[in-house]
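STRUCTURE:
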């Protein structure tokens, strides 16, 4: 099942402005494949999942809005299937309070940590977030452009299994 990362809002990157205008085309596809009367009905088959990055890495938002308000907005208006919260850049930890705020605002929508999850932080992150997206933390020496390190993956997943056991207690 494909997942598409979307931006919500307009942001200033080091190379200029970027906004979420691509949302319209993807959202149109999603709405056509999901009857308007039941956009969140789990009995309706829809193979597109929209992950909205409401706090993307490498940017500064041009309009400051509380994380909770932004999360609610994209879930209601844009049919977000998941909310992503990022740190300042790839490999940078997320602010767990931002995940808490988003989860409080949209309790029926998964909120994921999108950056900065490492072997040392995955348990604490999963105690708050519904899931994680990880890349840099699995790379050799924890460097984004290095290849994946199988030993880091094993250690990371060991921590994930421990986090799952703790959440079941």
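SEQUENCE:
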């Amino acid at each position: 099942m494909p997942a598409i990362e979307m931006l919500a809002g307009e942001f200033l990157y080091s190379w200029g402005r970027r906004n979420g205008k691509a949302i319209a085309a993807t959202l149109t596809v999603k709405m056509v494949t999901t009857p308007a009367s039941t956009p969140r009905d789990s009995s309706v088959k829809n193979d597109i999942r929209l992950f909205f990055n409401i706090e993307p890495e490498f940017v500064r938002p041009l309009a400051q809005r509380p994380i909770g308000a932004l999360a609610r907005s994209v879930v209601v208006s844009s049919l977000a299937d998941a909310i992503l919260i990022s740190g300042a850049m790839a490999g940078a930890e997320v602010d767990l309070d931002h995940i808490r705020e988003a989860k409080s605002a949209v309790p029926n929508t998964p909120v994921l940590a999108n950056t900065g999850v490492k072997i040392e932080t995955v348990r604490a992150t999963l105690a708050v977030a519904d899931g994680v997206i990880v890349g840099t933390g699995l790379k050799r020496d924890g460097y984004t452009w290095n290849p994946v390190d199988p030993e880091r993956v094993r250690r990371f997943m060991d921590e994930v299994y421990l986090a799952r056991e703790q959440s079941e207690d």
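REMARK: The chain has one domain: 3-168.
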